[in-house]
Amino acid sequence: QVQLVESGGGLAQPGGDLRLSCAAFGVTLDAYNMAWFRQAPGSEREGVSCISPSDNGTYYADSVKGRFTVSRDSGENTMYLQMSSLKPEDTAVYYCAVRRRGDSCPPNAMDYWGKGTLVTVSS
């Protein structure tokens, strides 16, 4: 079966850095669109970033643009989210997701989801 396992969450100071990982089992990440989402307490789930296999293009929410970087390692079959200059409003559970078909990353079209990893940004 397909499994996505997030890791790397934890507590960070404002202005600090964290790198999240999403290890994939039963699916080859290079063949599909991959995305990161997040959900803060009491809020709707929102898209953070997306990476496409067709042109390796990357997309970011305006709230994280310039601070977060999404990447993938084909050899490790792992997707990453490098988060820099963290803000308290980045506090959320972060989820990775994969879409089997299609070139975009809307949440209702993603086929596989991880269970999430909690990121807390606080002084």
Describe this structure in words.
The protein has 123 residues and is mainly beta. 0% of the residues lie in helices and 48% in strands. The protein has no helices and eleven strands. A hairpin with a 6-residue loop joins strand 5 and strand 6 (58-60). The chain starts with a strand and ends with a strand.
Write down the overall mean pLDDT. 94
Q: Report the count of strand segments.
A: 11
**End-to-end distance:** 40 Å
- Helix-strand topology string: EEEEEEEEEEE
**Continuous helix count:** 0
Low-confidence stretches: none
> Which percent band covers the strand fraction?
over 45%
Characterize the largest beta sheet: strand count, sense, and whether it forms a barrel: 7 strands, mixed
Shape: globular
Structural class: mainly beta
* Rg for CA atoms: 13 Å
Helical content (DSSP H or I, runs of 4+) = under 10%
Short description:
The chain has strands at residues 3-7, 10-12, 18-25, 33-39, 46-51, 58-60, 68-73, 78-83, 92-99, 112-113, 117-121. The chain is mostly beta strands and 123 residues long. The N and C termini lie far apart (40 Å).
List keywords for this structure.
7-stranded mixed β-sheet; 123 residues; mainly beta
Strand and helix map with partners:
Layout: E1 3-7, E2 10-12, E3 18-25, E4 33-39, E5 46-51, E6 58-60, E7 68-73, E8 78-83, E9 92-99, E10 112-113, E11 117-121
Parallel strand pairs: 2-11
Antiparallel strand pairs: 1-3, 3-8, 4-5, 4-9, 5-6, 7-8, 9-10, 9-11
